[in-house]
Amino acid sequence: MVNTTSSVGPPDSLFTLNNPAFGIYLISACLLVLKMMGMSLLTIYNRFKYKAFICPEDAKWLQGQVVVNDTVERMRRAHQNDLENIPIFLAAAFAYIFTQPPAWLAWVLYLGFTILRALHTIVYTLIVLPQPTRALLWVAGFLITGYMAVHAALHIFIYLIM
User: How far, in Å, are 44, 55, 109 from residue 146 at the CA level?
Assistant: First the structure.
């Protein structure tokens, strides 16, 4: 039997700053957005520094070359990795709010992922460490995202069928 009560939906206070999990989500989301913006700037900085551009018109305008530079490519790959992982985290983390987790668990999961992504970027771009350092940081973030997605999906599914 599907839940057809008139009070379907989240409690009114779920998406307010009175809910610590939502506040922590907003902090993490803002920090992750700023981190991705920083990766754009870091890539641009290195393109200018090494005069390594991907388009002939850019190279001509800025007196550079159309060339692949290892440093620029490393920055670009780190940014691409963010673009592949952070949006799915944000979606899973948002859905996870519906489970009404305790504040301490929201702190661990949301800020844990944020810190892992920052460390992943540092060891990918600034202080390059040998593998499996970067892989372990990625796996930990992947597991956090997966945990929240599965937990939220099951929670919402059970709510809908009850």
Answer: 32, 38, 11
Assess whether the previous peptide bond of 10 is cis (omega < 30° from 0): no
Phi, psi of 52 (to 5 degrees): -110, 110
Instruction: Name 129's Cβ contacts closer than 8 Å, sequence gap at least 6.
Output: 123
- Which residue bears the tokens 């940081």? 137
Q: What is the pLDDT of residues 95-126, one digit of tens each?
A: 999 999 999 999 999 999 999 999 999 999 99
- For the question of whether the overall pTM of this predicted structure is more than 0.85, the answer is yes
Residue 125 identity: T
